Amino acid sequence: MNIIRLQPDITGTVAWPTLSASKKSVVTVGVFDGVHRGHQSVIKETVRIAKREKCFSVVIMFDPRPAFVHAYAAKNGGMEPTSDVQDTQKITGVDERLRMMNALHVDYVLIVRYDLEFAAKSFRFFLGQLVGKLGMRTLVLGEDARMGANLEGTVESIGQLAEGTGVFELVVVPDHGGHVFVPQQAAPRMPEGRGEPADPFEGLNKAEQRALTKRLNSKKVRVLSSTNVRWLLGQGRIMAANDVLGHTHGVEGTVVHGEERGRTIGFPTANVETPIDGYLPVDGVYAGWLIDLGPADEYEESQRAYSEAPEAGAEPISQQYTSGGVENRLAEHSPYRWPAAISIGRKPTFNEQSGHDERVLEAYALTDDWLDLYGHRVRCEFVGFLRPQIKFDSADDLAAELKRNADETRELTSRAS
């Protein structure tokens, strides 16, 4: 797989590369945040058609997320977010998305830096560029795809353009996942009980479902959507979110020194530095996995070619993709992978003593070996919700609960592996 980063110029125009003088392309376009089952179906169809037609399979991916850019601009007088502003709503970072696209055997991923000038281009101009520059002969989209200025490029309008011009074909991949209702303002809410939270609509008749939908001021979204994944993760419904994703949700970051209280009570944890790459589920304790991806500086160096945006108007450079060996570490039976009880929250038992009230991510790996992970990039994957964050009367009570969480984690991860 080859990666090309593209930076629009001040007018929003992208210097699209010429991939070949003779070979055409089959293209799909989107953010692909989470790379959920719907995204996977679209990408797989893109690859399948490309192989059949002896074309390049091309994924055009936007970074940062368009929704993030527009929301930030709306709150900041039209200003765009700078590179140091964190998008806390993105489900997966670019690195994870690239790993998954490589596993799906995509030929090219074009990462376009999304800005307001680029967003103002019409979908007709955008698609004309793809036909003229990339040699696009087929465009593959999901049923609800939209693009271009004011999102006027619906599947219907793109289909009319394809039919009217005859220069490319539109293939729409059907979504068989159905729909679900989520609140308009879907704020994270920590479950009150132990274990995986239930679907609030489960067991209700149609009248009761309508009443609950109205009370929550809900909107109808696709089950296979990034919006639904965020809603589920924000309610602690990890198993349901993983089912929509088609893979285990995880976040990544660098291990740093913490207060080391866990070590004093027999449960040493890996403390992950913020900002964290990926969407943090709601506060609570989870069963999951801790995976050592290696020294953070070595990892960052291996990904540097894909992480640094070129200057606007610069000649596009194609880079052969490499994960830096991360796939081997992520493998199911990797020696760098351990079951882990993962805590997200503000340490209610100790925060009054410490004076620290920031939200933190800690993972206790279930292994008898001492893990020196300081300065390493790690991935925390979530398998199921165990319990809410609560304040314990003593360190001994906390230690007893952590042992229970470790036992629950062993059971859940053994079933999930």
Automatic annotation (TrEMBL):
Its recorded reaction(s) are: FMN + ATP + H(+) = FAD + diphosphate; riboflavin + ATP = FMN + ADP + H(+)
Q: Which family does it belong to?
A: Belongs to the RibF family.
Which protein are we looking at? Bifunctional riboflavin kinase/FMN adenylyltransferase
InterPro entries xref list: FAD_synthase, Riboflavin_kinase, Riboflavin_kinase_bac/euk, Riboflavin_kinase_dom_sf, Rossmann-like_a/b/a_fold
Q: Which UniProt keywords apply?
A: ATP-binding, FAD, Flavoprotein, FMN, Kinase, Nucleotide-binding, Nucleotidyltransferase, Transferase
**Mind listing the GO biological process terms from this record?**
FAD biosynthetic process; FMN biosynthetic process; riboflavin biosynthetic process
Q: What GO MF annotations does this protein's record show?
A: ATP binding; FMN adenylyltransferase activity; riboflavin kinase activity
PANTHER family named in the record: RIBOFLAVIN KINASE, RIBOFLAVIN KINASE/FMN ADENYLYLTRANSFERASE
Riboflavin kinase domain mapped to chain residues: 244-414
Q: Which Gene3D superfamilies match?
A: HUPs, Riboflavin kinase-like
Q: Which domain of life does this protein belong to?
A: Bacteria
Which Pfam family is an annotated match for this chain, by its short name? FAD_syn
Please name the pathway.
Answer: Cofactor biosynthesis; FAD biosynthesis; FAD from FMN: step 1/1
